[in-house]
Each structure stands twice: as C-alpha cells, then as structure tokens.
Specification:
Blueprint lengths: L5 E6 L4 H11 L4 E7 L8 H4 L11 E2 L3 H7 L2 E4 L10 H6 L3 E4 L9 H8 L13 E2 L2 H4 L8 E3 L3 H15 L8 E7 L14 H4 L4 E2 L7 H13 L5 E7 L6 E7 L7 H11 L6 E3 L15 E8 L2 E8 L3 H15 L14
Parallel strand pairs: 1-2, 1-4, 2-3, 4-5, 5-7, 6-7, 8-10, 12-13
Antiparallel strand pairs: 8-11, 9-10, 11-14, 13-14
Helix pairs in contact: 1-11, 7-9
Length: 344
C-alpha cells in the first residue's frame, strides 16, 4: 500500500471532525476517498452536508453496512459516537479492513472502567487490551502493525502531550496534577444541544463535568504507562465562546529543583523527532494552532509549582489530523504525508 493510493471510507461523515478529516484527505497524495456513510436514508450529497467541500468531492453519504464498507475501502475511519463504533469494528476487521476509530470505544483497556464512565456495556471487550492507542508521539513504534487504532480524545491529546516528557523523566510527581482546560464549542459535536446553542455560550465562560469528564480516566491510563506509576489528575474542562481550539493550563508538583530552562530542554529533547509538537518560549494561544496539526507547548516554574501550557486545534491535532498521522503509519508512509506545513 505504501507505493499506491489507499482507498479510504469515512463512516459517520456528517460531523465537524469528519469534515476536517475529508479536507485533509483530499490533499493527501496517498488517499482515495471512495465511500461516506450516514444513518440518513436519503443519501445526501457530501456538498449538501459540508458546503465547503462543494466541487472538491463528488460522493453521496450512504447508509452502508460494515461489509459494504470493507469491500470498497482498505482503511475505514470511524467518526461515530461512543457505542456505535464497537458495533461495527468486529465486522470491519473480519472483512479485512484496517480501522481508525475516532470515538472513545477502544481507548480504555478495562471494560469495567469503560462501563463506569460511559454507562455502556462494551460488546467487544476482549479486543480492548490489544488495541493500539493512536498518539504517534508516544506510540509510533507500535502503530504501523495495527489493524485497529484508537484515536485519542482532544482534551487527552492536549494533556498527555503536555505532561508526558515531565512524567517520563521523573521531573514532576505523578499525583496531585490539576488540569484546567478550555475548549471551543465544536468539541461538543454538530448535533444541537441546549448547552452549546449560540445564546447559551456567547459572552459566557463556564466549567462543566468537574471531576467527572470521560477523558479523565483516559488521561490517567496513558500517563500511568508513561510514568511507570499510578497517575492521578483532577481534570476540569471549560466551554468558551469560540468555534475551535483547546488551551490547557496544568499544575504539577516538581520532583526536583529544575528550573524553567531545564524543563524546556527536557521537552524539546523528548519531542525532537515529533514534527507536530512545537515547544515554544512564549505562552501559547489557540489562534497560533487554528487549522493546523500542531500542538504548542511550554513550561514555567512558579511558586514551587511546575506550570505546563498547551494549545491545539481540537478538530485537527485533537481529532482528524492525528487520525491521518495514524493512517500514514499503518499504511507504511511518512507520518507527515499530507501535511504540507511540515513538508509532507
């Protein structure tokens, strides 16, 4: 597959992340989009669902079975809600397709933890421990051989990328970590909800799911593996009145007396071979990453604490962009293929 174009399908093609994914795949030299799905029976044209794709992609959004998807496409991206992906993954894999799942269904290793946080019984639980977690900056060595990749969540990518270098080197304590994160409303998806209506979010800033957000156990699971010890975080997300972007301010207890410059050097060294992570001197903001697959990171020491700041675009590096990184790795391509901003 590495020398030819790979046929791809997007299952659940009507949402914001799917639109971003299609935009990236259309400029990708090794991807051929052959199928799009929706649960709607009227098979709308993709341009009617995503007007920005008018004249760029001539496909209907069809209601296709997993078998039909696998017959058309070598790689299937799942842009479906939690609970929907696990209903189709076994059939897609059985039919020979490779799968990149943007939902949360295969991110957690323990089905009991999944059931606790998502209030659903996992119907494909035996597959959870063997599923590859698709954050290439940490797991690029094991992603290439995978048939199923669990794409990370947007808040989790932000938090994990920010903390991994410091936990891996023992520079901060693995407990007592506080993550204060703020996201644009596209992170809540395209389906209308009272809390994300314009009149609710405009000129307002509010926290939600304090200590109960579903990304918290995902963050702790992945960072626990990085640290080699149990990691405990208090994660508080906020909704801000903008379309896209995440900014996380993270507070941790230092494990030694290293200063700001030393910790910046640690982060630079950790991400030396990661083209989409930029360790910056200034304080990052969301506008610098909007529409890109970059995550901007920096660190400071202040009043006996380590403060890490991270910014990324939740629809790109937090969803579609990292999915394409995973696509490149499982099809034998350079991780940066399709991203001209880094020469791909």
């Amino acid at each position: 597959m590495s020398n030819d174009r790979t046929t791809v399908a997007v299952h659940g093609a009507t949402g914001y992340a799917a639109r971003e994914l299609l935009t990236i795949l259309l400029r990708h030299p090794g991807a051929e989009i052959v199928a799009l799905t929706t649960r709607r029976d009227d098979a709308p044209h993709v341009a009617d669902v995503h007007p920005s794709l008018r004249g760029r992609l001539d496909l209907q959004c069809e209601n296709l079975s997993p078998q039909e998807l696998a017959e058309r496409a070598e790689v299937v991206f799942l842009c479906t809600p939690h609970g929907a992906s696990m209903a189709v993954v076994p059939e897609l894999l059985e039919a020979g397709a490779k799968v990149i799942d943007l939902s949360a269904d295969y991110r957690l290793n323990d089905p009991a933890i999944y059931a606790e946080w998502y209030k659903l019984e996992h119907t494909d639980a035996a597959r959870l421990p063997e599923t590859v977690y698709g954050l290439p900056e940490l797991f690029r060595d094991v992603i290439p051989g995978a048939s199923l990749v669990a794409n990370p969540g947007c808040y989790t990518s932000t938090s994990i990328l920010a903390l991994a270098p410091l936990l891996a080197g023992g520079w901060i304590e693995p407990t007592g970590i506080v993550i204060d994160a703020k996201s644009g409303t596209s992170g809540a998806g395209r389906n209308p909800k009272l809390g994300t209506l314009f009149c609710e979010v405009n000129e307002s800033l509010a926290a939600y799911a304090v200590g109960t957000h579903r990304h918290q156990p995902e963050i702790e699971q992945v960072l626990g593996g990085v640290a080699g010890a149990s990691v405990d975080v208090l994660f508080t997300p906020h909704l801000v009145p903008m379309d896209r972007g995440i900014l996380a301010t993270i507070y941790a207890t230092p494990a030694n007396l290293a200063g700001t410059e030393r910790l910046l050097d640690v982060m630079r060294a950790f991400y030396e071979d990661s083209p989409f992570v930029r360790v910056v001197e200034d304080l990052p903001g969301t506008k610098a990453t909007t529409g890109t697959n970059f995550c901007d990171l920096t660190v400071r020491t202040a009043k006996g604490r380590v403060v890490v700041l991270a910014a990324l675009d939740n629809l790109v590096k937090g969803a579609a962009g990292v999915a394409v990184q995973n696509f490149n790795l499982i099809t034998g391509r350079s991780e940066a293929t399709g991203f001209p901003e880094v020469g791909g």
